[in-house]
Design brief:
about 325 residues; alpha+beta; 4-stranded antiparallel β-sheet; globular
């Protein structure tokens, strides 16, 4: 952490790089972005907000800071010059540059915490967090205002028709929550999806298109045609998949129908069918909603999506957002 002497040295030598670093330190201290990441909460304890905001305004007005890449380069360069350890310097600069150049997404509400994957059905929402634990990352349940920690670890999560979470962990093992503990299920998977037609999974056996697709048959997994990397089940019980070429398919009861567009993830539920596309935008990739004939572009960017009564997304900084 910076000392008062460190900050005094930077202020007495107001180069463009020093202006940026002071700005970076105290811009976070203002509290506007404390909820966006653990790093921001750490750096929010630093002081001297008014000097920092003035310095950032001057640096941006001068043209020295015009993009997030420029922000990171300038901040990291000064951090190294004044002896900040690389990890700490990168955390500080990333926090402030994210806040400055990745503005809030119109229509979306920023929620506390950080995550890797999210599962929503109705008003029930579960999260694979960002804290490493045995099995992958911590598992959390939304209580309406924050996340309650649950036992276990996972890398992918989905809710079935009874709103019970199913997870796949970092070894591909599948578990189902019984209300108090995780019950091991047969088979292995990379992704799971649930709906009124039951549970579906993307397995671990390579096939054209990604990995095998399976449907839960009550005591085991029945193989289905095709290959995928991500899967979700809509309100009517129809599964949708994304394959390793980013193609989107919908099951018609007998075969997979190729849909328009390209995606890296798909979410489906009462709030409709949504995808994370392949076009790079702040926050990850573009977000799209199926209107029955094509994909309508929505604001914001994400890397993972799930749809309950409304869509929930995780972006490339592990921030969690829900549609208002």
């Amino acid at each position: 952490m910076f000392t008062k002497e460190d900050l005094d040295i930077v202020i007495r030598r107001p180069t463009l790089m020093s202006m940026l670093l002071v700005a970076t330190i105290a811009w976070v201290a203002g509290g506007s972005f404390q909820a966006q990441s653990p790093d921001c909460r750490i750096w929010s304890t630093t002081s001297m907000m008014w000097e920092a905001r003035l310095a950032l305004r001057r640096a941006r007005t001068s043209g020295a800071v015009a993009t997030k890449l420029g922000c990171l380069r300038l901040g990291s360069g000064l951090a190294a010059r004044i002896g900040i350890p690389p990890d700490s310097g990168e955390a500080l600069c990333k926090c402030a540059c994210d806040a400055e150049f990745d503005p809030p997404m119109p229509g979306w509400q920023l929620l506390p915490g950080a995550g890797q994957d999210v599962a929503a059905r109705g008003t029930e929402v579960w999260l694979v967090g960002s804290n490493p634990v045995p099995g992958g990352f911590g598992i959390y349940r939304w209580n309406g205002t924050n996340w309650n920690a649950e036992p276990g670890g996972a890398v992918a999560i989905a809710l079935d028709e009874m709103m019970r979470p199913w997870v796949a962990n970092d070894r591909g093992a599948i578990y189902r929550w019984n209300g108090s503990t995780w019950i091991g299920m047969p088979g292995t998977a990379l992704d799971v999806g649930g709906g009124t037609s039951g549970m579906w999974a993307v397995g671990t056996n390579p096939v054209p298109g990604g990995f095998g697709i399976y449907r839960w048959a009550g005591t085991g997994w029945a193989p289905m045609p095709g290959g995928a990397v991500r899967i979700a089940v809509d309100q009517d019980g129809t599964p949708w998949v994304v394959n390793d070429q980013h193609a989107v398919y919908r099951w018609n009861g007998a075969t997979w129908i190729m849909m328009l567009g390209a995606a890296i993830d798909v979410g489906a539920g009462p709030g409709g069918v949504w995808v994370v596309g392949t076009d790079s935008v702040p926050g990850g990739f573009g977000i799209y909603h199926w209107d029955g004939a094509g994909w309508t572009a929505m604001p914001g960017g994400a890397v993972r999506i799930s749809v309950g009564n409304e869509p929930w997304v995780v972006n490339d900084h592990q921030l969690i957002w829900s549609w208002r």
